[in-house]
Amino acid sequence: MRERIQKVLANAGLGSRRQIEDWIRAGRITVNGEVAKLGDRITTEMAINIDGRPIKLSKSLSKKTRVLIYNKPEGEICTRSDPENRPTVFSHLPLLRNSRWIAVGRLDINTQGLILFTNNGELANQLMHPRTELEREYAVRVHGQVTPQTLQVLRKGVKLEDGMAHFEQISEVGGEGSNRWFQVIVKEGRNRLVRRLWESQQLQISRLMRVRFGSITLPRSLHRGQWQELELEEVQSLMASLGDEPLP
Fold first, then answer.
1. 124: which of 7, 81, 84, 102 fits an S-S bond (Cβ 3.0–4.6 Å)?
2. If you compute the radius of gyration of the chain from its CA atoms, what whole number of angstroms results?
3. How far is CA 244 from CA 4, 35, 96, 123, 239, in A?
4. Claim: this prediction has a pTM higher than 0.90
5. Superfamily of domain 3-61
6. CB neighbours of 107 closer than 8 A, spacing ≥ 6?
């Protein structure tokens, strides 16, 4: 059965659907010698090349789904390579055959904490899709005077340059004076959303760490720069939270 090319390649762990759509627009993918177009449907028997390199879909699609938890340190970027030679999160991950690790969302260079990686592009797509509304929880150290009125505004909603946004929950958890710690929850993956919400109230973040993504919490025993693989049962539970059948 023919399926859309971005779905097949995502299932094979070659990238997220969004990444693959960008590759198609850039003319980087060919199908049976012809440049692929958005909307093309393919089978696994067709000859697929990415940047001139043949892709063995049968091997990629037969792999089991794997998910890693990674504790990102500050100073690392979430791209595979960097012209400035800055360290990247991908340099610490185990090697894969016939596929690649896909980051589930990103953290900016100054943010640390939990990032999920998977070799299943369709799973990555579902985890990042806005309709899932998965919670992202952060520990935040805020510099400045945070009043009850400020917290009320951030819960109710603030108009940012890309639309309205708000915190689902805010809890004060420690600190004193003008340096206080909060736990905040958002259900969106917009770029630098947590920072921009606080900054909209003329407050600065001096420390930001993601501690939970959906049902997955950053283990206290996982040191910065280290990864840990989810057990099969944990992967199946993650998939069940998305309303899908367990993956092989």
1. 102
2. 20
3. 19, 33, 25, 10, 6
4. no
5. RNA-binding S4 domain (3.10.290.10)
6. 72, 78, 113, 115, 210
pLDDT tens sequence for the chain (248 residues): 688 898 888 877 777 788 889 999 999 999 999 999 998 998 888 899 999 988 877 666 557 889 999 999 999 999 888 889 899 999 999 988 777 899 998 899 999 999 999 998 888 888 988 888 899 999 999 998 899 999 999 999 999 999 999 999 999 998 776 789 999 999 998 999 999 999 999 999 999 999 999 989 999 999 999 999 999 888 878 877 776 544 44
The single residue listed with the structure tokens 């990415």 is 50
Domain span(s) for CATH 3.30.2350.10 in the chain: 67-131+215-241, 135-213
Residue ranges in the chain assigned as alpha helix (H): 5-11, 17-25, 57-61, 121-128, 148-156, 193-199, 232-241
The CATH number that domain 67-131+215-241 falls under is 3.30.2350.10
Domain 135-213 has CATH 3.60.20.10: no
- How far is residue 77's CA from residue 192's CA, in Å, rounded to a whole number? 14
Strands (E), 14-82: 29-31, 34-35, 41-42, 48-50, 53-54, 67-72
